[in-house]
Design brief:
The chain has one domain: Rossmann fold (3-Layer(aba) Sandwich), CATH 3.40.50. It has 14 helices and 15 strands. It has helices at 25-37, 53-56, 79-86, 99-102, 106-113, 118-126, 180-200, 233-242, 262-274, 276-279, 295-310, 324-328, 343-349, 357-381, and strands at 16-20, 41-46, 67-71, 89-92, 130-134, 162-163, 204-209, 212-213, 247-250, 256-258, 260-261, 282-286, 292-294, 319-322, 339-340. Bound molecules: nicotinamide-adenine-dinucleotide and uridine-5'-diphosphate (UDP). Belongs to the NAD(P)-dependent epimerase/dehydratase family.
Length: 386
Amino acid sequence: MAARMDLDGRPIKPMTICMIGAGGFIGSHLCEKLMAETPHKVLALDVYNDKIKHLLEPDSLPWAGRIEFHRINIKHDSRLEGLIKMADLTINLAAICTPADYNTRPLDTIYSNFIDALPVVKYCSENNKRLIHFSTCEVYGKTIGSFLPKDSPLRKDPAYYVLKEDTSPCIFGSIEKQRWSYACAKQLIERLIYAEGAENGLDFTIVRPFNWIGPRMDFIPGIDGPSEGVPRVLACFSNNLLRREPLKLVDGGQSQRTFVYIKDAIEAVLLMIENPDRANGHIFNVGNPNNEVTVRQLAEMMTQVYTRVSGEPMLQSPSIDVSSKEFYGEGYDDSDKRILDMTIINKQLGWNPKTSLWDLLESTLTYQHRTYAEAIKKSMAKPTAS
Ligand code: NAD
Ligand code: UDP
């Protein structure tokens, strides 16, 4: 492999990366990219490895020897510090990060996103190791504009909704709205990492993903995850489409999101990995501000794309409204809008996303159809036990 150059024209030295949560959605794509395009070595830590099995087996793969899986639960495993010490860089992706858990399992959510991340930060700081920590766009909470009267013209002014790393406030709902347990835990771990940087010189980068989506995200209930499980919206809607059920729009599907293709977002992470001088000490929004839709529009688009991909006719009523209380239970609340400012990532890393929402849905739903359609048909044909 020819020597890779960083953004300043210097050759990149091969490094060892301790990736925690490597078996998840983002981790699997990052491992794939690192194996296919770089000489770096990955110590992949997770409790599951189903999503990276194709990278681990067979032994004849060209990158065999550069990726090692360690089945570790970071809550209680004394091997963690040793693995962090062996690496040049630690990337922490481990988290409970599905909204259905935030209000129904708030303790697990807070422990996972704050308490369990503490030793990782501590070991990196004590051993002078670089850390890339995955936070979330949800630390911004609600936009300032959402508190203005519905008909206020200021709602259209970007100053009231664009989310910027170093100036926007973090606005969460009340404590009874347990939805915010995740955002609050992520915010506190960000503050701790920032303080370790300021007081103890920790070299850190914080990533705030804005709805990264693509193949291998979450699970399809009853196929490769629990039947009663509620994944994030891409997998919920994929499941509905595969089963030919109407897509459920929570509280009318009025919330707005910007979706970025996982493969675009992974490019940004690779730039952070390979350009420490430009990434250290920064918090980066990573998303695609051009791909904004309401959840209702997302449902319509996914229905159209899936109809093309599967060749199956559209349902007469492709979506239904459900209340958030019915869908998520007590204590749910929502982020209204997520438009990211990209000044910092543009300036530091020159990164921009490329893929349109239509194109990313087309490739993702093609994958979903190919991966799950047969299994769904079989499971639906089985008589259910009475
Ligand atoms: P994911 O659930 O697919 O991946 C998380 C992985 O961490 C899972 O494989 C899980 O098994 C592992 N994990 C959790 N607890 C662990 C523990 N105690 N020990 C070992 N492994 C553990 O989620 P993802 O979408 O890949 O997200 C990765 C990170 O990015 C998370 O920190 C999440 O909060 C953040 N994030 C992602 C998005 C997105 O758009 N996908 C948005 C905002 C934030
Ligand atoms: N949502 C929905 N129907 C579903 C699943 C989710 O209307 O079947 C909505 C949810 O209320 C939220 C948006 O879709 O407004 C995005 O949800 P997701 O779970 O992807 O996570 P979030 O972006 O809120 O972190």
